[in-house]
Amino acid sequence: MDAIADAASRPSFPIPENVFAERVVFVKHYTSRLFRFRITRPASFRFRSGEFVMIGLPNAEKPVFRAYSIASPAWDEEIEFFSIKVENGPLTEHLQKIVPGDIVLMRKKPTGTLVLDALTPGKRLYLFCTGTGVAPFASVIRDPETYEKFEEVYLVQTCREVAELAYAHELVDGIMEDPLVGEFAAGRLHLYATTTREPSPRMGRLTDLMRDGSLFEALGVPPINPETDRAMICGSMAMLNETKAILEGFGLEEGANNKPSSFVVERAFVG
Ligand code: A2P
What we know:
By secondary structure, this protein is α/β, with parallel strands linked by helices. The protein has helices at 92-95, 135-140, 144-149, 166-177, 182-185, 206-211, 214-219, 237-249, and strands spanning 19-29, 34-40, 52-56, 66-69, 78-84, 103-107, 124-130, 152-159, 189-195, 229-235, 263-267.
């Protein structure tokens, strides 16, 4: 069994070559299940908005690494993550206790399919997510390139409870005030957030709202059309499969980095 170090702030084991050791600079807890944190960004670290990376803690000789979508855009000076707290989760049971000054390990190689390069040009970009699946889209909607490529951007998130939607609301409000992205996003970025287990102004799973057409009615747009619309999906396996089938029903096709098409999919990671 690996020895356990005292605290994340004191890496007592050698850091492998393929890993950055970065300081936590900010932590915010939203609910008993969700928190976000920011770490310093290594000068040599490059990624595309929407990609994910493996992160861990320096508390064991063989640290547990888990895939995390990078929630900050490619231009940001820091790296942001949005995380669930899994009870007895090998990483998150420790990660949820981090405070500024602690060390987080990040593997050097980012990857992922929720990138603009994997989509063919279009007019509207839909970003469909449940729970922490919003994380990669927090990156995509803060990237000016998104607004260079698409006229309209719709972030559609379903969560169980109202408090779980706070991150997305905060994010979109922040974007509107941001000197860099605000002017691109104004009037073009729209958030449609729904709950399923607590009353709120908008209720229901995004999948049901797509199927009965009420989502498009509420957004004031025509139903999804392969000529004009592109989408990214991030959520649980069940949500991905359902949303993918709905998009295929509208005539969209799944794309990849080496074969751009009209929608892309990635599982929201848990750890
Ligand atoms: P529900 O409350 O009806 O299960 P979780 O926290 O379990 O990951 O769920 C996050 C949100 O995703 C919940 O609001 C949940 O709704 C919703 N959800 C779960 N499965 C699906 C699915 N197959 N399609 C769309 N939304 C889903």
